[in-house]
């Protein structure tokens, strides 16, 4: 459905679109003028161990200071005490009537607390922040007195950042205005096409078919009348996702408001308009990925209800709202790839474009590594702001960890790890032999070579999984050649970048010996998740609400899902990953050519990588990684649909030889279903 046709429907149903849009705009203007400006003051408190407890053995018996062997757990105990209803009652008695928040300070793994008070009176907010800061120290002392700990072993809460001058916070007001305006516009859009669909159905019921387009009429040209399909829209999404740093977003939408995500939501509107007007139907045999998205949607919505049923803070409510927006983005990507693409060639084109764009992002990572900087820091796009506080270039050993256009080096590593199997498959694809050696193998070299440059366990684990999954399925000649290339590559890295291989080896040796500080910090956080899970075991605290600003980094998607969506959320996560694994196996089982069997193995390897490395970082909280994962999930379901329809078609020809590019190309053409898009 072209943009011109969409505008034509909206013009015919102006009596639906215009009133709802005006209601949204007027409501937004009212909220903008009526909602007062909020001011926020912040302070930071650090927990310092007692002098006596810091002395050498023997240990001194302060259970709070030594709970879990780290003051991080002590800080968690204090945070819970300050968030309790008793503490809120005591603070109200002290004059703190505005909203206050307490949690772990962002981008820290130590016992550093961040306190904040938000209100409409600037002077009162500053005084309340001072009261909350002093109350935190008194509460910690009261906890230790109740435990009958000797005063010389007290843990001290020491302010290191005094209450700051309150600053205006317009973001919450902008978010309310944007939500109302978007709701009015989207409601008018959907109801307009629903009215159009009802009108067409009514005319057909009366025996009056819509008039067919006039023959001989010259087709209109221009942007508004250019045919659109899911591949075109997804290409636009990929370009925005890859080439605009993923930490930049629209201020009113927060972390989910990246330009790529906004474009994906527009793509969902396009699909809904095409579906309501009868121009497109879901591709047959592709329900699998959409069914698992229903499981994820159920987990997210039930977690949203759980968040609304408890005494959550204003920040958590906004975070839960952003979680719903993120869910819609993921649904859009899966629907567009699995239900919206009806031609095999268009799906192949989409995967090739994704690999090429990811290769460019990998090349930017090389620049970051060798120049010890980050090129994305120089991107200043009007209207966008960074959603990640304190984004900086990270170092490990003597090496700079590149992040390219991603928000963090782990996201960069994870994104490359799930896409490199497709680069390898396309390089070996006999259909693409005409492309030349450089065009086929450059993506493999760029993406595969960038993985160790991130100097992270995540990238190496992902690379090892890809090797272990794909190598056994290759013929011996190719397998031994690939092993030789890998050995030569390791030697080349050792010569060209001295110390890199040793640093990576040290990462794993310290991990296995449990002497790595990063691993120890994560282990402590795992135990800190358990109390939150016990409070809401089935549906969690609310998807997107367990933010580092209020709590702490989990560095584990499964632990984060347990905290936010409970056991149902964990089941939904495994459903997503195992659906991707199933798609790879089904493509291999139904494929008629060796090229398609390797494509199925690429999907299998990609999903296996996502399954494993999600235990090493908050995978789906990073927009670029999450977007690429859901695109591949939907694409796998779409390929399964093509394979099933080809297998069910009567009179199939014998599979073409793998060594014959022309035969493979002809076989691929035979398996292409007739498009089911109805364009006028």
TrEMBL record:
Region annotation (Disordered) ranges: 651-680
InterPro entries: O-antigen_ligase-rel_domated (IPR007016), WaaL-like (IPR051533)
Location of the protein in the cell: Membrane
Predominant localisation class: membrane
This protein's UniProt keywords: Ligase, Membrane, Transmembrane, Transmembrane helix
PANTHER family: LIPOPOLYSACCHARIDE BIOSYNTHESIS PROTEIN PA4999-RELATED (PTHR37422:SF13), TEICHURONIC ACID BIOSYNTHESIS PROTEIN TUAE (PTHR37422)
Protein name, per record: O-antigen ligase family protein
Species annotation: Actinacidiphila polyblastidii
Taxonomic lineage of the native organism: Bacteria, Bacillati, Actinomycetota, Actinomycetes, Kitasatosporales
């Amino acid at each position: 459905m072209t943009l011109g046709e969409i505008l034509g429907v909206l013009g015919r149903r102006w009596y639906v679109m215009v009133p709802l849009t005006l209601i949204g705009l007027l409501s937004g203007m009212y909220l903008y003028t009526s909602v007062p400006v909020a001011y926020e003051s912040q302070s930071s408190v650090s927990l310092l161990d007692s002098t006596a407890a810091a002395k050498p053995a023997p240990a001194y018996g302060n259970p709070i200071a030594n709970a879990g062997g780290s003051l991080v757990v002590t800080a968690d105990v204090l945070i819970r005490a300050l968030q309790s209803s008793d503490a809120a009652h005591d603070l109200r008695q002290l004059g703190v009537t505005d909203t206050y928040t307490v949690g772990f300070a962002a981008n820290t793994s130590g016992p550093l607390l961040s306190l904040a008070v938000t209100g409409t009176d600037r002077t009162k907010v500053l005084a309340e922040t001072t009261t909350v800061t002093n109350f935190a120290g008194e509460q910690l002392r009261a906890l230790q007195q109740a435990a009958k700990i000797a005063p010389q072993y007290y843990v001290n809460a020491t302010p290191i950042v005094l209450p700051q001058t309150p600053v205006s916070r317009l973001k919450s007001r902008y978010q309310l205005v944007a939500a109302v305006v978007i709701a009015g516009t989207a409601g008018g859009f959907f109801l307009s096409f629903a009215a159009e669909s009802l009108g067409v159905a009514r005319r057909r019921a009366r025996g009056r078919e819509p008039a067919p387009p006039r023959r001989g009429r010259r087709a209109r040209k221009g942007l508004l009348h250019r045919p659109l399909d899911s591949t075109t829209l997804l290409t636009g999404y990929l370009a925005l996702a890859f080439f605009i740093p993923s930490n930049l977003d629209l201020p009113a939408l927060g972390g989910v408001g990246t330009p790529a995500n906004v474009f994906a939501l527009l793509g969902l509107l396009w699909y809904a308009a095409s579906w309501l007007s009868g121009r497109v139907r879901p591709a047959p045999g592709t329900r699998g990925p959409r069914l698992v998205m229903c499981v994820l949607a159920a987990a997210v919505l039930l977690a949203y209800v759980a968040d609304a049923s408890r005494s959550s803070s204003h920040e958590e409510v906004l975070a839960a709202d952003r979680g719903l927006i993120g869910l819609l983005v993921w649904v859009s990507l899966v629907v567009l790839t699995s239900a919206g693409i009806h031609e095999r060639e268009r799906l192949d084109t989409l995967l090739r474009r994704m690999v090429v764009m990811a290769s460019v992002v990998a090349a930017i990572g090389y620049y970051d590594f060798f120049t010890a900087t980050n090129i994305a820091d120089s991107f200043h796009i009007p209207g966008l702001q960074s959603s990640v506080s304190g984004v900086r270039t990270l170092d490990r050993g003597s090496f700079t960890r590149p992040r390219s256009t991603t928000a963090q080096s782990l996201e960069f590593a994870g994104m490359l790890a799930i896409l490199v199997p497709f680069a390898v498959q396309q390089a070996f694809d006999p259909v693409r032999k005409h492309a030349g050696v450089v065009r086929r193998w450059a993506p493999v070299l760029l993406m595969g070579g960038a993985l160790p440059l991130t100097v992270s366990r995540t990238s190496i684990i992902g690379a090892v999984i890809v090797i272990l999954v794909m190598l056994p399925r290759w013929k011996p000649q190719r397998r031994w050649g690939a092993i030789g290339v890998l050995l030569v590559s390791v030697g080349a890295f050792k010569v060209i970048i001295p110390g890199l291989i040793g640093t990576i080896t040290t990462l794993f040796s310290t991990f296995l010996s449990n002497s790595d500080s990063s691993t120890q910090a994560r282990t402590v956080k795992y135990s800190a998740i358990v109390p939150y899970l016990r409070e809401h075991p089935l549906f969690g605290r609310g998807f997107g609400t367990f933010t580092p600003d209020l709590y702490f980094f989990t560095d584990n998607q499964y632990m984060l899902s347990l905290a936010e969506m409970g056991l149902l959320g964990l089941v939904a996560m495994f459903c997503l990953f195992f659906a991707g694994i199933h798609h790879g196996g089904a493509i291999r089982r139904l494929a008629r050519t060796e090229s398609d069997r390797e494509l199925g193995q690429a999907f299998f390897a990609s999903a296996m990588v996502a399954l494993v490395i999600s235990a090493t970082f908050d995978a789906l909280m990073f927009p670029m990684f999450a977007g690429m994962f859901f695109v591949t999930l939907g694409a796998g379901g779409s390929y399964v649909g093509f394979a099933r329809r080809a297998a069910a078609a009567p009179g199939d020809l014998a599979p073409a030889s793998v060594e014959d590019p022309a035969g493979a190309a002809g076989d691929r053409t035979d398996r292409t279903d007739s498009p089911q898009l109805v364009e006028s």
